[in-house]
Write a structure and sequence with these properties.
The complex is a heterodimer. Chain A is of the alpha+beta class. Helix content of chain A is 42%, strand content 13%. The chains are: A alpha+beta, B mainly alpha. Chain A: Its cofactor is Fe cation.
């Protein structure tokens, strides 16, 4: 999974001098900040299901603004210095979110969203992931319906997720409002769909159903999901591997 | 009453059609299930340009508001059925759909009246009692506009920013509510992350909405894209202060 890139720029003063300078007006400071991760495809690669115009604004303005605003907040915050995953969990503060939560979670969510899609996406997963979906939802069409229904019944802004639940050791579909994501419950996200209006309004206006179906049929990256499942199995024991009998 | 169940008009109708025997109708209450419909705007879709585009007004009214009404009617019908059957868990389960869609209908009905074309008084600051109240509670009309715009811009996700009258304290104040909550209602959210951004507690009957501004993205996205502050800067040109003043005079009496 590609995290946001951490970039460093060094002050012109030597590290060793940092202690000596503590207390002086111009203390040297090494500042790290989160970068804006680009989608792993060109901005027009998801046409006609998600237009270049949408990607330009959704990634270039919304996502970028979350990154910029997060960095501004962290410049003077005790939460400075965490990885993005840690930051999201800490800032969630067990349901009483700190000011940094919204920006941090939205940065995380959008990073994850671009990777949940691919050009020529959609259709179905294969092999192990498909088997797990069939095991936990009954069938792939059942899963698809659950995902779409959950997306459509979100009130207001939010995201819909396919997650691997660590405790129950099974896949589930979860909807959450605004910026909340499954990391805060200790679950492992597999794919996500942005249901904020800005994600679909330019291409679909109010027709959320068409957008969700387009995601399922033509955008979702099952390859990406499969890779995440493989990684998730390092943390969640899903049972004995099926070893084929010769 | 003990001999009679509440019968909805629909059930009564079908019972009569099928030639059912006497229903003890002398003791029966017949509840009529009301369906709601889309209220008309008192101005053309394009009349609020350039502050709000005609395209947005048309979709906002004909699609979004209509959808709230359609789903509200549907939820009420299902609620009616569930009550008839005594299906408590279904009744409880329908509350969030009713709150959301009914709330959306209420809020948008207020919103259309909060707007007026500039040649019909839109944008003209309030005079009289509301004007004085704003000066008293915010310092100046400009200060109110600035504060309301910044609170609207800062609202995370979807919601509304309101100018409301606290009847108890006799003060006007600004509130924000998430999704389709009305101003001054306490939040009972079940969905993780649904934040109540307004003042805590249930103020219920002590507050009246004078003015509401929709800050859901659908209210401005086609025209302003992600720049909600620009939408909030421009909408003041078409705000119907006369309606807000009348509401104030009515409530404060």
């Amino acid at each position: 999974m590609v995290h946001a890139v951490l970039c460093f720029h060094y002050s012109f003063q030597n590290l060793k001098q940092k202690d000596q300078l503590r207390g002086s007006r111009r203390t040297s400071r090494i500042v790290a900040f989160y970068g804006l991760t680009a989608p792993p495809y060109e901005l027009d690669a998801l046409e006609p299901y998600m237009s270049q115009k949408t990607l330009e604004i959704h990634w270039g303005k919304h996502h970028r603004a979350y990154v910029d605003n997060l960095n501004k907040q962290l410049a003077n915050s005790p939460l400075y210095g965490l990885t993005l995953d840690e930051l999201v969990k800490v800032a969630y503060n067990n349901g009483n979110p700190l000011p940094e939560f919204n920006n941090a979670a939205q940065v995380w969510n959008h990073n994850f969203f671009w990777e949940s899609m691919q050009p020529d996406g959609g259709y179905m997963p294969a092999a192990g992931l498909l088997q797990q979906i069939e095991k936990d939802f009954g069938s792939f069409p059942n899963f698809r319906e659950k995902f779409i229904t959950t997306a459509m019944s979100l009130f207001g802004s939010g995201w819909v997720w396919l997650v691997l639940k660590k405790e129950e050791k099974k896949l589930a579909v979860v909807g959450a409002s605004n910026a909340v994501n499954p990391l805060v419950w200790g679950d492992i996200p597999i794919i996500t769909l942005d249901m904020w209006e800005h994600s679909y309004y330019l291409d679909y206006r109010n027709d959320r159903g068409k957008y969700v179906n387009a995601f399922m049929d033509s955008l979702v990256s099952w390859q990406s999901a499969t890779a995440r499942m493989a990684r998730a199995e390092a943390f969640v024991n899903l049972g004995e591997p099926k070893i084929p009998v010769a | 009453m003990a001999f009679c169940a509440l019968v909805s008009k629909k059930a009564l109708g079908s019972a009569l059609r099928s030639g059912a025997a006497d229903l003890g109708s002398g003791l029966c209450q017949i509840r009529r299930l009301q369906t709601f419909s889309l209220p008309d705007l008192s101005y053309d879709y394009g009349a609020l340009e350039p502050a709000i585009s005609g395209e947005i007004m048309k979709i906002h009214h004909q699609k979004h508001h209509q959808a709230y009404i359609t789903n509200y009617n549907k939820a009420l019908e299902q609620l009616d059925e569930a009550i008839q059957k005594g299906d408590t868990s279904k009744v409880v389960g329908l509350q969030s759909a009713i709150k959301f869609n009914g709330g959306g209908h209420i809020n948008h009905s207020i919103f259309w009246k909060n707007l007026a074309p500039t040649n019909e008084g839109g944008g003209e600051p309030p005079k009289g009692a509301l004007g004085w109240a704003i000066d008293a509670d915010f310092g100046s009309f400009e200060a109110l506009v600035q504060k309301m715009s910044s609170e609207g811009a800062a609202l995370q996700g979807s919601g509304w920013v309101w100018l409301a009258l606290d009847k108890e304290l006799k003060k006007v104040r600004i509130e924000t509510t998430a999704n389709q909550l009305q101003s001054s209602m306490s939040c009972c959210s079940t969905l993780p992350g649904e934040n109540f951004t307004g003042p805590p507690g249930d103020k219920g009957a002590t507050s009246g909405s004078l003015l509401g501004i929709d800050v859901w993205e659908h209210a401005y996205y086609l025209q302003y894209k992600n720049v909600r502050p620009d939408y909030l800067k421009n909408i003041w040109k078409v705000i119907n202060w006369k309606h807000a003043s009348d509401a104030f005079d009515g409530e404060a009496a």
